[in-house]
Design a protein that fits this description.
By secondary structure, the protein is of the alpha/beta class. The protein has 11 helices and 9 strands. The structure holds phosphoric acid mono(formamide)ester. Phosphoric acid mono(formamide)ester binds next to helix 2.
Amino acid sequence: MLKSKDLLGLKDKTAEEITEILDEAVEMKRYLCGSERTSALLAGKSLVTLFYENSTRTRSSFELAGKLLGATEVNISVATSSVQKGETLIDTGETLDSMKVDFIVIRHPMAGAPKLLAEHVKASVLNGGDGMHEHPTQALLDMFTIRERLGKIKGLKVAILGDIKHSRVAMSNLIGLRKLGAEVHMYAPATMIPKNMDKMGAVIAKSREEAVEGADAVMGLRIQLERQNGGLFPSLSEYSRFYGVNDNVLKLAKPNAIVLHPGPVNRGVELTPQVIDGEKSVILEQVTGGVAVRMALLKLLNEFREKNL
Ligand code: CP
């Protein structure tokens, strides 16, 4: 049983709650990939997606997750909404609450925006990524994919390479993977790795090769050009050469290692095309798992709402 109405980050979720979500997602994936998709679990419930930043995967998979479980789903296009007339986040939230919306999925460039919204609405708020803070559903689907492929998370070595400093995915994965007992090794240019990551439980590798050596899972992170002012690395081709994941680097990982990337990928920068499309890549499995994980979350949060609100 989840312990709160919202999913704001993995920092405030216990290992038991995370495991419950992953277990439920196993059932949801079976349903998603089956031929009978007629669930009315969320019939009469409504879901709004409120994205202040672009998205393909997170937004559409939440929309699909809601629809597949029988909820009514509405997307608010921030670019054409009253946000453009200066409406505040809280006023937008209270407006949605007045429409008796049950779930609001929000992506916002400001860290903490989902929490602020959650404190002002009765609806359950699900964080679809806030600034450089957290992206909890991405980490949950990453953990789901790792556990599905490798059978467990505890004791695994997970290497995370790339733009860690600007990455809410890295933050949520570090928190979640550590809670479930994995070792998280990180490597990036010195300009792309915050100083406190070791205090949060990460092992900071001295080289890309050290990070990947013996790894069970290797995760490349997108270079977030939109969050940078430039000057963090000399050029994209040098980034790829010295910090990217290619087949040679992957030879250092365990023979059955998998390669993850949250997407969208800058092809040829974080990962070579051969790695993206290679046999170790589980990037598209992550996407399928993302729908299952989001279905699981909606189901479990709905149970919380029915018992507690
Ligand atoms: N991984 C991820 O958040 O992708 P989108 O930006 O497409 O939602």
